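FIELD: query
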Amino acid sequence: MNIDTLNAEEIREIYHHRMVKDFPRNERKSLGRIQAALRRGAYRCLGLRDGGEILAYAFFVILNRDGRQDWLFDYFAVREDLRGTGIGSVCLQALSAGCLQSADSVLLEVDDPAAAEPGAERTIRERRQHFYLRNGLRETSVRAKVFGADYVLLELPVHSAHSPRAAAALYEDLYRSILPAPLYERMVRVTVGRGDQES
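FIELD: result
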């Protein structure tokens, strides 16, 4: 198995046949926006392959400035029939040991368990968060509401970990790099700690 860059046809195939099932509509960017970001060098689409099969995919927003590259997991999913087999952990570990080593920072949003009512949905969110924590990510004390979805922000400390305020500022900068200012102001809210420092 190896990680490599997905080509344009593979990205279209994943978008139309996998992402529509893997992510709710309000969390999916248009394919046109993803393609535009790829052309600007502000996006990267990677896949975990076994021969010709793409077992998992990871799409990233990339902020390039001042000689730095800061990455945000935009989408990460394992092929539906392989979930629960350990492929997600294999993919994250391969990413961490490989291309993510060239990043100055790596952030990831996970659905906030506290924003779900007790029951099945909260349990799913808690499992998802624990999966990422088991695979080397750490909590940042940053929460966000983006296009109506509630997130906890995690970080993969590839070189060193950020303070909560620094992680929040970096997260905001990543979103500002991909959204028009009016849309950002309407749709992105970031809090540090218990929500007392909204920005």
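FIELD: remark
The two ends are 41 Å apart (CA to CA).
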